[in-house]
Every structure is written in structure tokens, then in C-alpha cells.
Amino acid sequence: MVSINDVIKGDFEGKKAQIRGWIYRIRSSGGIVFAVVRDASGIIQVTVKKGNVVNEEFEEASKTLIESSVITEGRVVKDDRAPGGFEIQATKFEIVGKADVFPITKDKSEEFLLDNRHLWLRSRKLTNVMKVKASVLKAAREWFDKNDFYEMTPPLITTNACEGGGTLFDFDYFGREAYLSQSAQMYLEALIYSFDKVWSITPSFRAEKSRTRRHITEYWHLESEEAWVDNEGNMKTQENLIGHICKKVATEREEELKFLGRDVEDLKKIKPPFKRMSYDDASDLLQKKGYDFEWGDDLGAKEEREMTINEKIPLFIINYPKEVKAFYMKENLDDSRTYLCSDLLAPEGYGEIVGGSEREDDHDKLLERLKAENVDLKYYQWYLDLRKYGSVPHSGFGLGIERLVTWICKLDHIRDATPFPRTITRVYP
Ligand code: 4AD
Ligand code: MG
């Protein structure tokens, strides 16, 4: 049994090969059945000729519908008309699982495709996206490993609202209120005291009440935290990590990216350093361009699009006003209205893919902020403790994997960057 890709590479020309997979297209004409079979590695044409296989197999093949599973064997022959340039002339064509009429046809609505996501995942588009995503995850792990970060496993059930109460999923935890994690950050902060540099990849949950192209309620969150690192060092970590991911994905997934409309040359240009622009300058620029924007406003999708539509590489916006960012960030001593923080915006209009900051390491300042947040302080005692026992300057960030994949794969909507998207209106299938 060999993979279709091995056959397409030419390793089996003139020889016998056995493959297994699913029927992608099938038609018959005058005693020959032409089937295109796919497996995880690719597609290949198989011709089933009356007389070359046992009669029952030929009869079966002429009636078989797409998405049936099949094991087939035959001689590999070069044929420029076939997709991939080779075909298998079957001497065996065994249907393993006969398919009913496949419900997905060309002109189905987006809703229908989402209801049938478990089947639509077989499409080449989604298959290619998920392959790119797997490579992104592999590249990230590789980078952290090479740079001496320890991978951590923070909890997903928590009593802390890291990113504010507005998007928390709460639930009954044996009679107490608990939340699904929005971020591993606070736990990673606790871990730097023994590991210096840590990272994790976990699901994060956001009860986003808005329907947008870039929000899902459950996403994969890559987070990093480093002791002794300031906001500038934190941005260096981000750009080096993302540079590595783009380089790796460009070499490993060239075919898939091409199918999705992404030229790998674009990704090869994603090298540090990325541009940095202050929030102040961004604010001036947006005003000059006629946006209804005042200093103190947050950048939304529209503004981020404007900032990046003509960019080819990601852009850091730094030092946002305090009122639009979270309580744990460190104050900017040069302008106390702002924090030492950064958002990294993907180019071509895609917008925010990473949020990061230096953290407030002073116990009393942090306590003041927490009081202003109106949270139940007893749940934050442990977090305040971190500032009591050997506090250090430290910084970290969170990268939304699906946001990164949306940009890399040039997708219109974040839901296609994850196999089973969860949104405000969808938890099925
Ligand atoms: O900017 P956010 O909210 O920052 C944090 O959670 C920090 N505590 C992270 C840290 O410093 N450790 O989220 C980080 C990233 C965003 O930049 C975005 O890429 C992604 O998470 N993200 C979402 N992705 C998809 N759907 C959503 N609803 C998302 N919300 C945030
Ligand atoms: Mg953010």
C-alpha cells in the first residue's frame, strides 16, 4: 500500500502499486470507468477496464458514487491528460464502503455547507487549509524548542477574568461559578519564576456577542511569557517566531498555499524586524484619512484594515491608551496615559493577530488596577502574590492561531481556519 503522492512523484512508473482512498470523481464511458481517487496526500486517476478486473468489480465500479472508499491496485502509467500526470490501470478495484448520494454539490449555500461541515471537510480547500495549520503548529513548536522555552499546560477552568467580564463563558462548577479560560497568561506568569521562558498552546474561549469575520468563540491560543524581558524584547520574540513560521510553511506547504491563492514569495518576505508605529501616530494618520476617530478610541477591524491594506509585512502598533487595554499591563512612564503594549497587525488588511505587553510588576499598582476592575479580589490573591515574592520585569503575548492561518491562507472568514467552527449561532456539528 502506497500513498498517492508517491505514485504522482513517479516512483512507480511502469510498476504495480496499490492505493486506498475515497472516490473524488467518477464517470464511465464505453466499458471503461474513470475514477479519480484521493487520499490524504493527493489525487490520482484510476481506469477500470472491463476484462482487466473481475466482472463483479467492474459492475460495482460502474455504479459506484463519489466518496465511496476503495482499495485499488494496478500498473502505473504516465499520462499527461490525467491530473498529476500518472494513472493507475486497475487490476483490482474493491469498494470498501459504498457511499450514499453525497449531499454536497456545487451550488450549496454557506449555511448548508456549515450544517454539513463533517462532510465538507473533505473538500480540497479545507484539506489544504488544515494542512497549512498543522505546519504552522509544528513550526511554532519547533521555534520555541530551539529557543529554550518550556512548554506548559495551564488550566482551562478558572475563576479569573484575564480579558474582562464581557466575553466570559461562565458555568456551574460544583455549586461555584467558574469560567472557561480566555487566556493562559496569568498562569504562565506564575510559571516564569521557575522556568524563565514559557509558552503554551490551548483553546481559549470568548463569548463574543458580535458576528464578525474574525471572531470565533473557541480558538487555539498560542501564548508566551518571559522573565527579564521588556516590551521591545517581547516584540522581538513575536517577529522571530512569526518569521520562522512563515518561512517553514512556505517551503513545506507550497502546493497547498498555491491552491488557496497565496504566493509563497509573500511569506518568504516576512522577516524581522517588523515595522513599529505608536498608537499616537496611528491615531493622527486615521484622522488625516478622514476616519471618525479620536485619541482614546480602540482600533476596530475597519481601522486595522486601513492601517495594513497596503502593507506586505506585519505592523506593530505600540503604546495604546489605558482605557482600551487590560488591567495587567505596565504603565508607560514616558506617557502615563498609555501602556507598554503592542498589537501585531497582519498585512493586506487582515489586522490583529497578536496582543502583547510588558506586565505590571508592582504589587500596589496592580492592586489598584484590580480594585478599579471591580473584580472579587479573593480570586486574584494568588496573582498579586507573584509581585510579593521576587517580582521581575516580564512580558508576554497571545497569538490567535486561526487569525494567523486566515491571513497566511488568504481566507475571507476565520471559520475556515478551524475544522468545526464555534460562533454565536453555531455549535453543530
Ligand atoms: O488580544 P487578546 O485578548 O490578548 C490576550 O488574551 C492576552 N492575555 C494574551 C497574552 O498576553 N498572553 O487575545 C490574543 C489574540 C488576539 O490577538 C487574537 O489573535 C486572538 O487572540 N483572539 C481571537 N481569535 C479568534 N476569535 C476570537 N474571538 C479571538 N479573540 C482573541
Ligand atoms: Mg487584543
The residue ranges in which pLDDT falls below 50 over 5 or more consecutive positions are none
Largest sheet composition: 8 strands, mixed
CATH superfamily of the largest domain: Bira Bifunctional Protein, Domain 2
Question: Which whole number gives the mean pLDDT?
Answer: 97
CATH-derived architecture of the largest domain = 2-Layer Sandwich
H and E string: HEEEHEEHHHEEEEHEEHHHEHHEEEHHEH
- Using only C-alpha atoms, the radius of gyration works out to 26 Å
Heteromolecules bound:
4-amino-1,4-dioxobutan-2-aminium adenosine-5'-monophosphate, magnesium ion
Percent of sequence in beta strands:
25-35%
* Number of helical stretches of at least 4 residues: 14
How many E strands? 16
CATH topology label of the largest domain: BirA Bifunctional Protein, domain 2
What form results from the Cα inertia axes? elongated
Q: Reading side by side through the largest sheet, how are the strands ordered?
A: 6-10-11-16-15-14-13-12
How many individual domains?
2
Range of helix content: 25-40%
Just give the CATH class of the largest domain: Alpha Beta
Overall structural class, as computed from helix and strand content, comes to: alpha+beta
Amino-to-carboxy terminus distance: 33 Å
Report on the architecture of this protein:
- The chain has 14 helices and 16 strands.
- By secondary structure, it is an alpha+beta fold.
- The chain has two domains: 4-97, Nucleic acid-binding proteins (OB fold (Dihydrolipoamide Acetyltransferase, E2P), Beta Barrel); 117-417, BirA Bifunctional Protein, domain 2, CATH 3.30.930.
- The strands form three sheets. Strands 6-10-11-16-15-14-13-12 form an eight-stranded mixed beta sheet, with helices on both faces. The protein has a five-stranded mixed barrel with strand order 1-2-3-5-4.
- The protein is elongated.
- The mean pLDDT is 97.
- Bound molecules: 4-amino-1,4-dioxobutan-2-aminium adenosine-5'-monophosphate (4AD) and magnesium ion.
